[in-house]
Amino acid sequence: MTRIAFLLVAVVTVAGVVASLAPASGQAVGEAAPIFVTKIPPGYRDWRLVSVAHEEGELNDIRAILGNDVAIKSYREGKLPFPEGTIIARIAWNYVPSEENNKIFGRPQSFVAGSAPAWYLQFMVKDSKKYAATGGWGFAQFDKDGKPAPEADLKKCFPCHQAIKDRDFVFTRYSP
Ligand code: HEC
Fold first, then answer.
1. Burial of 64 (0-12, 13-18, 19+ CB in 10 A)
2. How far is residue 87's CA from residue 72's CA, in Å, rounded to a whole number?
3. Residue 123 Cα: closest atom of ligand 1
4. Cα–Cα distances in Å, from 131 out to 23, 134, 146?
5. Cβ contacts of residue 84 below 8 Å, gap of 6+?
6. Whose CA is nearest to atom 26 of ligand 1?
7. Ligand 1: does its nearest atom lie under 6 Å from the Cβ of 156?
8. What is the pLDDT of residues 89-117, one digit of tens each?
9. Is 51 within 8 Å of 175 (Cβ atoms)?
């Protein structure tokens, strides 16, 4: 009798452990998987330059677009779609007049990178499986303190980038 009771306890215990493990190992595809990138890719500041741009209007910034090695190779070979592992970074700065430089020129003409706006840092990370719902790209935005943008903001990224589906959802062209 005690042996049966022991067996019962053992079976119930094992079943409990299996049940508690099940949600972690059997995570349904696309269910709890992250849909946005929440960590800053390391080393991005040393990546090579794809191009630069200037926004007017509400953004009113200057920006550099950088690519990791996979991105740069693909850009230079003119190959689309971008391969797995591609990461494109976009850094933005407020632009400010430089008195220091203007003194040298003898007139106001120089603008340089100033403080970081709230949309300081953005990334697009290619992982076709993980980010299947957003064209294979994981979108990310961080402020100057490394704080990720609220999910509501990140939900707006792909719907707009969809406009450039023909170039694998990437607007920026490589500037030689
Ligand atoms: C209203 C449309 C729109 C929205 C919303 C938008 N983007 Fe973009 N994005 C653009 C355009 C247009 C460019 C090119 C801008 C330029 O070079 O002047 C761009 C450029 C980029 C680039 C550089 C690579 C490329 O595609 O040129 C990254 C990275 C990027 N956006 C990430 C994001 C992220 C992350 C979000 C969401 C937080 C986002 N974007 C939201 C339109 C949008």
1. middle
2. 9
3. 29
4. 21, 6, 22
5. 126, 127, 128
6. 170
7. yes
8. 999 999 999 999 999 999 999 999 999 99
9. yes
